[in-house]
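Bench notes, afternoon.
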Amino acid sequence: MTAPTPVRSSCREYYGLHVVDVGEDGDMLVLGHGHPPRLALSALNAHARHLGFDLGDSFETARANLRESWAQLHTECCGRPVVDTEVPDGPCPGCDDDPAQEPRPREYAWCADWYAAADAPGAFPVTVWSA
């Protein structure tokens, strides 16, 4: 199962893992499940340092904030799940809102829910680190 294009294009790669920061609280996602904790935390810490912070001094504390989950993308305008590998250009098929007419950049026309059910439409596996 592959993450939708908006997520993959927003990621940075560290140690072979794809990491993206989400939200405003410092939470980050590593795409996929089953990563060795030290590898996942190394990739997350590298991304955190890119953003100007780090995961802290203790491996045990950082490890306690790491868990596997499922993520799902939604269009920002109406909440329609993004199940395709590409977000369509032009009006949203859920509500006809045209993200190209919005003042925000096109790549931010979606939002993520990283507490989705595994069987939710378009759900993809992630490893979550919460600040």
